Amino acid sequence: MRLAPPSIDDGRHLWALARDCGLDVNSPYAYTLWCRDFAATSVVARGPSGEVHGFVTGYVRPDSRDTYFLWQVGVHAAARGRGLARRMLDHIGDRITGDGLAFLEATVTPDNAASRALFASFARDRGAPLEWTPLFETRHFPQGPAEHAPEELVRIGPLAA
Predict the structure, then answer these.
(1) Taking a C-beta distance cutoff of 8 angstroms, is the pair 5, 40 a contact?
(2) Do 46 and 53 form a contact (C-beta atoms < 8 A)?
(3) Which pLDDT tens digits describe the chain residue by residue (161 residues)?
(4) Any long-range contacts for 40-43 (C-beta under 8 Å, 24+ apart)?
(5) Contact 100, 66 (CB under 8 A)
(6) Are 75 and 62 in contact, with CB atoms under 8 Å apart?
(7) Residue 145 has what pLDDT?
(8) What angle (nearest 5°) sits at the alpha carbon of residue 131, between those of residues 126 and 133?
(9) 43, exposed or middle or buried, with CB in 10 Å at 0-12, 13-18, 19+?
(10) Taking CA 17 as the corner, what is the angle to CA 79 and CA 106, rounded to the nearest 5 degrees?
(11) Model pLDDT for residues 93-111, shown as the tens digit of each residue
């Protein structure tokens, strides 16, 4: 897999992958805009033919300029179990620490064992503290056919450059 920043043309692929992975899906427009405006803080994993097998989207928090917020991680079903999510996270970690950022944050539902393990291994291997705190409660989300689970904030850092 080749890791690189996304291009505008990747927006539709990120949308489809998010849908297929069962992530909270945003509009195709949002993913396309993301690939334009936040390409420098995101990554896509491409197979030999250029197809998108995974992505990480994130941004530098405007009110906390030393903190990267990881918004979504998606890995195609055929590429799971091969360490691709961790490889993309390491890629982002190297990029943000190289830019002088000290913290990585994300939100995770309490039942998402895979994401919790991913962030725990990242923090451990980087020798960085990891802290979990409640952030969004069910009441913060609109009620629909399925109630949205709460989201806890994971904060990792400070990260060494």
Answers:
(1) yes
(2) yes
(3) 999 999 999 999 999 999 999 999 999 999 999 999 999 999 999 999 999 999 999 999 999 999 999 999 999 999 999 999 999 999 999 999 999 999 999 999 999 999 999 999 999 999 999 999 999 998 888 876 677 889 999 999 999 98
(4) 40/5, 41/68, 41/92, 41/95, 41/96, 42/5, 42/6, 43/3, 43/4, 43/5, 43/6, 43/88, 43/91, 43/92, 43/95
(5) yes
(6) no
(7) 61
(8) 155
(9) buried
(10) 90
(11) 999 999 999 999 999 999 9
Question: What whole-number distance in Å separates Cα of residue 103 and Cα of residue 89?
Answer: 13
Q: Which two tokens stand for residue 108?
A: 């995770």
